[in-house]
Fold this sequence. Notes:
heterodimer, A: 350 residues, alpha/beta, 10 strands, globular, B: 522 residues, mainly alpha, 77% helix
Amino acid sequence: xxxxxxxxxxxxxxxxxxxxxxxxxxxxxxxxxxxxxxxxxxxxxxxxxxxxxxxxxxxxxxxxxxxxxxxxxxxxxxxxxxxxxxxxxxxxxxxxxxxxxxxxxxxxxxxxxxxxxxxxxxxxxxxxxxxxxxxxxxxxxxxxxxxxxxxxxxxxxxxxxxxxxxxxxxxxxxxxxxxxxxxxxxxxxxxxxxxxxxxxxxxxxxxxxxxxxxxxxxxxxxxxxxxxxxxxxxxxxxxxxxxxxxxxxxxxxxxxxxxxxxxxxxxxxxxxxxxxxxxxxxxxxxxxxxxxxxxxxxxxxxxxxxxxxxxxxxxxxxxxxxxxxxxxxxxxxxxxxxxxxxxxxxxxxx
Amino acid sequence: xxxxxxxxxxxxxxxxxxxxxxxxxxxxxxxxxxxxxxxxxxxxxxxxxxxxxxxxxxxxxxxxxxxxxxxxxxxxxxxxxxxxxxxxxxxxxxxxxxxxxxxxxxxxxxxxxxxxxxxxxxxxxxxxxxxxxxxxxxxxxxxxxxxxxxxxxxxxxxxxxxxxxxxxxxxxxxxxxxxxxxxxxxxxxxxxxxxxxxxxxxxxxxxxxxxxxxxxxxxxxxxxxxxxxxxxxxxxxxxxxxxxxxxxxxxxxxxxxxxxxxxxxxxxxxxxxxxxxxxxxxxxxxxxxxxxxxxxxxxxxxxxxxxxxxxxxxxxxxxxxxxxxxxxxxxxxxxxxxxxxxxxxxxxxxxxxxxxxxxxxxxxxxxxxxxxxxxxxxxxxxxxxxxxxxxxxxxxxxxxxxxxxxxxxxxxxxxxxxxxxxxxxxxxxxxxxxxxxxxxxxxxxxxxxxxxxxxxxxxxxxxxxxxxxxxxxxxxxxxxxxxxxxxxxxxxxxxxxxxxxxxxxxxxxxxxxxxxxxxxxx
Lengths: 350, 522
């Protein structure tokens, strides 16, 4: 059956060429918070961010407005960015690295890529929220908690610590995410406090008790909301954000287990690259992230704990920051992390 | 078959350059592994790695078989029969390819998972679990079988109808004609398409992570995400490259060496479509079922989310349009470059088979067997050292995506070349035409169907590419896929629905034109 011309393959080829030049002509419309960015050489600094735009955008805008300087941001997974920085080495275009997880920034620091921060920057946060060697500093804190479905579980039924989740009544009702770094940080903390044998036994009991593995915190939260599981080990702010969006009827609540290492504070953190040729500007940006204004933004918008001295957490964060144990320096030792992964693999959790 | 002729120097050079470019990510793995060989060997040869490899192999085999079972009937019905609305069916069955596998997995969980839409609609307590092997198999099959369908349809259009006519005239029943006449001619393209499906399955991370099936990429993810162990990650990546070489071997065995081009003279005559008669009803039911699960269901969830997203006003349409322009730009360049580069490789492999040609073809597949993060890091490594001026530019990004998806174009082009008799080219040579001229005036026009199919496959995959784009794009450059990622990372699924639907809409245009292609006389 003959078809009308023009021939589709020519049309297709024309379309491809058109699309290619359309894009080329538009200068690739790279939109950035800084505005006109056709000029590759900017006065500004380059930030590699493991945190998504919604989590840091306004803080970056604030700094741009105040300092009159452009901040160019590359967004990707924290671990991918850490691996990229390590491959780039001295040739990295980045000036600042903002990590979502503590292990990633420790890996970059271990590779000798982070500059030592000046004392005035380090002093903005208490000593327990920064690298003892001064290469990175914490910006916000996220607590490891137990999230639960309010329709299925009473808060009074929850055990005093996650160790209690291996009891028979929790069989098949618990979700966790062994492959995420936040869970692994928590296990590392357990090892430091209770030793490998006790930690391994807990992991094995969790596996035997039918703990359901999820790829990340969001999927755990959503599974609890849907009633797929009843409780889960999770970072607190994922629930806090969902409550802020979904209103008081949202079925998931958080519980800070009071006992032992019930909850644990994990840090998001920044460091300045040794290879940066704009170190003063980069440091100014780090100071801005730790300013009361930015810290207030972090805690009100994403319900994280502000780490800078003198900044009050959002009123919804009922548990005082001082009551939550924080990962101490040994936790970001990568050899420890490797030991944790080996232990989790042996226990069948990973 | 003409005995091994020598390839012209310019073709060999081009092929070698393409092969060298495509092997960069694998070369990076070698560099990293060489840094700590014993640790790498320990990881790669651990019983755990072997166990995971077997799990991945089981999933891959199941996905390939199911993809053949879907693509073969859909391809045949939409090309060779009078099925009502066949072009629309073809487009609808192809589009699932553009849905990123992690989005597809989420959509399936939302639709079929515990307390999902289906369960609510049926009002039942529990549905069979979709997690684990079954879910991963279902999602990967539904969203990758078009990798086989597209080249299969391109080949079906070029099959000589005379053989079938002869068989039919001799009183063979349609099914028998299909089995004895059509199927043997489809073997090369089924082998090539299955290879693409298999390579996609072994390198996928999105679907298996969400559906909780521990496959090989999860191990690579653990190596990076948790311990930042680049040697372990590279060692595991190298295992995938070896697995890829094995799959290539299987694929070429299945492809066979029997020539499938027509021996006689003359041009292809337009095929008379089979009349389905009352068989059209089961045929329509089959296509409807495939489209329902692979297209309507996911798109339905997206539309539902999008309607909620619009009501909360979270996505601006002008932003989405700009993102669409960027996606289109990258995908179009990668498709054009990929088709040209693949043509050189395919012509070498099919027309001038030699040790060198085989090596080039194999090297060119390395980038597709690896997860995106390893491809990206490989180019970070080489670009910052060799061509820092190009680092994180559009040019490097297009280059990276092109070598990542190059095999998608090689397969269809090679299949279409296998179908063409080299005698035509030889005749032109005999009449005194130069090799380059024959290439330009004979080979390229005749391989057009395969080139278009190959370009479309690269295009559709480049549209959804994520990891390489995040790492290697110019700073601030965003595409539809990166926007979907940004939204889903924090669980804003409603907001991700609009860019996902735009992604489908933009991809629909080339897919539609491609399916039109078969209707026109060559």
